[in-house]
Amino acid sequence: MLGKGGKRKFDEHEDGLEGKVVSPTDGPSKVSYTLQRQTIFNISLMKLYNHRPLTEPSLQKTVLINNMLRRIQEELKQEGSLRPVFVTASQPADPLGDNFREAQPAFSHLASQPLLPADLVSTTPLESCLTPASLLEDDTFCTSPTVQHDGLTKPPPPALQPVKDSFSSALDEIEELCPAPTSAEAVAAPAATGDSKDHPSEPNVQKAEGLSESRTAESKLMDPLPSNFEITTSTGFLTDLTLDDILFADIDTSMYDFDPCTSATGGASKMAPVSADELLKTLAPYSSQPVTPSQPFKMDLTELDHIMEVLVGS
Amino acid sequence: FVGAGGGNDIQWCFSQVKGAVDDDVAEADIISTVEFNHSGELLATGDKGGRVVIFQQEQENKTQSHSRGEYNVYSTFQSHEPEFDYLKSLEIEEKINKIRWLPQKNAAQFLLSTNDKTIKLWKISERDKRPEGYNLKEEDGRYRDPTTVTTLRVPVFRPMDLMVEASPRRIFANAHTYHINSISINSDYETYLSADDLRINLWHLEITDRSFNIVDIKPANMEELTEVITAAEFHPNSCNTFVYSSSKGTIRLCDMRASALCDRHSKLFEEPEDPSNRSFFSEIISSISDVKFSHSGRYMMTRDYLSVKIWDLNMENRPVETYQVHEYLRSKLCSLYENDCIFDKFECCWNGSDIVMTGSYNNFFRMFDRNTKRDITLEASRENNKPRTVLKPRKVCASGKRKKDEISVDSLDFNKKILHTAWHPKENIIAVATTNNLYIFQDKMN
User: Fold this and answer.
1) Interface of A with B in 25-44 (CB under 8 A)
2) How far apart are CA A126 and CA A70, in angstroms?
3) Is this prediction's pTM over 0.90?
4) Where are chain A's structural domains?
5) What confidence tens digit (pLDDT) does each residue in A168-198 have?
């Protein structure tokens, strides 16, 4: 940050995003809104995960960036709840559908909310969802009503549950491999900064607090790296967030490839690039292949393995 | 501005600048806090390298009526050293986050200085005499054989060159899991508070092995954390009252008499969001970076990214005044988020209850007069700054045709930020810290 006073320049295309307070309800600028949102989303992720400081990162900054990501995620979720969400049972014979059926369990059990598909499968009929009119006009997220209702009324696949259990036990194994210093931390914290002669009479309040923290942390199975919670809450958040997006994109992609499901308006073709873009750009740091927004994004198991590796290994 | 002639604007003149001249800034020299003591005679700075430098004002020279005394280095000492947290494998920075002076009770001066984890009470004392005339030691310092000492010689104090010694008298450690952002001395002058991201602790100045937790906003599940404490301060007159600000733009006033743990505020100050200004960055720019009571204690001032707000303690639902510091940055928030400038923590300070001052980019700083509603932008730079020449007001051109002498937003240097400023408690003397230099400005005395 302390250069010789050189001013950083922003990218050309992003110049267009500046200077405008774009709200989601602006009709024509909806695309630039989503573009800006996506840019901010990516910047936020980069900030959380590319930073390897020698000192503890600022908690305030981490919290603010997390809130930003959460807000964007909420928006995406709300927009996503209008998309025709379907469940595996309704698309039996298509090869991509098979892929999807295989892929979905691999992802869904990673989601910290096992009922996440249920979130997407909104139980309220489309008509009663509040939708900014612009969403319906520009990026027609919804397709034919019949498909909508099919998707909406199906419960989440029961296959999720057993898969989750087997995976979470695998997760536990990984946890065991990672050091879990939360309990040790509380006991050792008084000793960590060792120059004061006040150790013997260390306030018991701090110690007791630290120990109870460690118990609550360890009781959460879905937390892959409990040791990092005190330092960066973002680690747990990434697991939550990125997988949601992958999940979204997965569903979208299948929708995109399904002729019966795309509407006559061709809305899905507009819809896919938005979500695929987000996913592509999010994954860009992890993949060496150049990705272009126009490529239809096909998820296969090797990519899944790669992503799993990255997430669990970080 | 309030001036000697009543209603005249203050005319600020450059007085001094301290620090290295070169453009290459050594990381350790970055100034991280500036604070006058209660009389204004001493001015302390803390830096990223953990050092404290104290300047002392020269006694006013009767013959030199044109300017007030200059500030010269009085004492320099290493307050904090870097530490290593072996458990988390992270360094604990030695950067001095805050310095607060205690009121003077005897010949010595006392101040509290803190880094992210540890607060220290330093005693600064002068020594200008030493005892001489002992006949108990040889020339080389060895004690003489007592049987050879035949006379009784009483040593006499003789003057010596002034020596200023700083010694740590108390070390308040191991009470903060998170990074300390504020310390504030109570008006009882016996206790003080220290605040980190999630907790506020109350200490007694004499007791280092115990502190009481008075605010705790840590959620049971850290994943639910969405708000942190950003600053805290005791009320200048009520020893039971303090305020703390948050990253969501709220200020809570707490009364320690209400309960031991002040998790429920007595007052909550929050301005509803302006829907026309809503953006992705609304929350981040609402995060309060500093909160300061006016000297009277009736008002408090908060600084968020783009503005300074004055609150009347009797009115919680909105500030009584809002001053825009650099509104032209509102359209640049995405870039400022990308380069992290949006997280810069600007401080603010009062002159009594009438004028407030805060910093900005490009080494600009701003002052707002609450009475005349006038504001001014000045620049802290070595160029064009001669002693006793009045500083030229600066202007940033937000858009459109740039007038002569105006600076366009795009040519602002965002690496030159003024985060820390201080106002002398009694006179119109201000200290303004650029990255690694300390500027002192005075009003033009007629």
Assistant:
1) 36-37, 39-40, 43
2) 24
3) no
4) 29-79
5) 555 555 555 554 444 333 333 343 343 334 4
